[in-house]
Amino acid sequence: MEVPAKIQTLARQLGEALHQTRAVQAFLAADREFQADLTARMMNERLFALQDELIARQSAGELLSQAEVDEFYALRQQIALQPSVLKRQEALDDLKLYFMGISAELSQRLGVDYAAMVDHSHNQT
């Protein structure tokens, strides 16, 4: 389905306007802070690598030791307490709430459930 040029233009303008909002700018700033925090990033990378490894081993039928599971949860807790991670997560939570409000506003103005419509179109691809 081809989207008319007028709708593309309006969607682009909406995206640009949303990019300038406090919620988006706060998240981008928090994300830059997280990206600059080498310790938090390395811990996060280690967590995802460990998660992938444990899932692969478990999927292969291997039983994981309690120590390995504890190591994963301890690392996840350590990361969650990093200031840059906390700030980024709070900004992301605020951004999600903001976008939920935008979705509700679009639904009201369009007279359709915008979130369901978007979800349906993503499941079609």
Structure explained in plain terms:
This protein is mainly alpha-helical. The chain folds into two domains: 1-36 and 86-125, no CATH class; 38-81. The chain has helices at residues 5-19, 22-36, 38-59, 66-80, 83-110, 114-124. Helix 3 packs antiparallel against helix 4 (66-80). The mean pLDDT is 91.
SSE diagram, text form:
Elements: H1 5-19, H2 22-36, H3 38-59, H4 66-80, H5 83-110, H6 114-124
Q: What's the rounded overall pLDDT mean?
A: 91
Rg: 20 Å
How many strand elements? 0
Structural class comes to mainly alpha
The tally of helices reads 6
- Low-pLDDT regions: none
**Residues in β-strands, percent:** under 5%
Our measurement of the CA-to-CA distance between the termini, rounded to an integer number of angstroms, reads: 12 Å
Query: What is the ordering of alpha helices and beta strands?
Result: HHHHHH
The backbone outline, from C-alpha atoms, is: extended
Helix content: over 70%
